[in-house]
Amino acid sequence: MTTEQCDYLIIGAGSAGCVLANRLSANGKHRVLLLEAGGRDRNPWIHIPLGYGRTMFNAQVNWMFETEPEPALAHRRIKQPRGKVLGGTSAINGLVYVRGQREDYDGWRDLGNSGWGYDDVLPYFKKAEDQQHGANAWHGVGGPLAVSSLSDKHPLADGFVAAGINIGFPYNEDFNGERQEGVGFFQATVRRGLRCSTATAYLKPTRARSNLRLLTNAMATQILFDGLRAVGCRYRIGNEERVAHARREVIVAAGAVQSPQLLQLSGVGPADLLARYGIPVLKAIDGVGANLQDHLQARLVYECNVRVTLNDDLQSWPRMVRAGLQFALSRRGPLGWWAGFAGGFVRTRADITRPDVQLQLLPFSSDRLSPKLHRFSGFTILVYKLRPDSRGTLQIRSADPLVPPAIQPNYLTDPRDVRTLLDGIKLLRRIAADPAMASLIKCERSPGVACASDSDVTEYIRHNGISVYHPVGTCRMGQGSEAVVDNALRVHGLSALRVVDASIMPNLVSGNTNAAAIMIGEKGADLILQSAEEKI
């Protein structure tokens, strides 16, 4: 059996894993082995921003997970795309860069996770960042991760922002700056018109490092222990089973779906679940796979009265050729667009203290984010509750690591989530009715103006709502029986084992999750290196 030796074993080359590989190998003192179950990021659609519409449904770069039938969503299975490629989901997502709100991180700290307040994590956001607009109190330059604004103007984006201002929301030029509240334009992880995934940002610069070894198509199947100390893992490349041994630490960075799955397969998790599949219990931790949180979006589709949407661009040969040439020559135009370049963070009620919903405009329309666009000139505006109260679970369904886990987010099982989405739909319709947007709209196609009562809109959401693909929380950081890792991201009750990815979030951040996952990778790397220095 092939055996690899290293100091640090990182399982997963995704949003956090690539960060860890770069930072842990940078000083040349440590031998690092990075395992990625997917392949290399050679698919050209990964690097073209608009290509997320193809990679989201491509099984070569996507695990193609689905939830279990969702009880509050008409028992539908909801797609849960996760990246199966270098860069993980940062290589297939919609590229939008949002950090969340100060209160999110202060809330983590106040749950007993010292060192995770906003003032603690802001330096790691800045360390990661190469901000197009320069450095200031909230942004950094010179970091690996490019963060850019869209140079193209678009009438729908301008109309949306103008309408939001007209109905009373403040304009915000930087959602990642001093405050998040308001309407404006999103930033994205783009460098010179191309996607800047963590594979591009963090792994590419490490190619010449002899102390970093990367294995792709290498799926970890079990963490190995000597007593209660993690010492390596089993993994498969094709039909060959191999072993990796780690002298210092094993770091699980497989994401909110596969990190808890791997822990459970390795005997770390709820005892009754493990017994169900004949897995010996090494360490009973009820929280492994609990606390699953995700954003659920409700969408309105409009027909545009001017042909300025992606539906128009991608269903006309002359316009497709023009878009291709424009992107090839200047890295601009429709192929350089990301998943919504206008939107906002607003309060649905006057009696709450901070934004509770995110609004987003997409310059295309389709059925449930299918790759197939509508034939009419369409666009989409959507809303989701930033901090949902519903909680779900993630559990293995077999002792076979190739069997996908049961993903059960339990969307909208808490009535407070339904209420917020109803209020959010009303806000979207107010924006659409403002003259700045109404002048561009022919009609509301879905659900249509006949769907007006709260009960009708609720039924529409239950039959049409979909994930925003932000699962977190399944290896929660904190104390108590439901916590999996401590504030240094060490798994409770075990040694030399950490989880460093979005699964450690105690609660969802207020917005897209990729920026926070990268920050977790940066801070996690520092914690690991500090621990190594203390042991010398």
Whole-angstrom Rg: 22 Å
Query: What does the average pLDDT come to?
Result: 96
Supply the number of helical segments: 15
Please state the second-level CATH architecture of the largest domain. 3-Layer(bba) Sandwich
Largest sheet: 7 strands, mixed
Q: Helical amount among residues, as a percent range?
A: 25-40%
Give the CATH class of the largest domain: Alpha Beta
Total DSSP E strands: 26
Name the poorly predicted regions. Answer: none
The rough form would be described as: globular
Class derived from helix and strand content: alpha+beta
Proportion of β residues?
15-25%
Tell me the span between the first and last alpha carbons.
33 Å
**Domain module count:** 2
CATH homologous superfamily placement of the largest domain: FAD/NAD(P)-binding domain
Task: Enter the CATH topology name of the largest domain.
Answer: FAD/NAD(P)-binding domain
Keywords:
2 domains, 7-stranded antiparallel sheet, Cholesterol Oxidase, domain 2, 536 residues, FAD/NAD(P)-binding domain, alpha+beta, 7-stranded mixed sheet
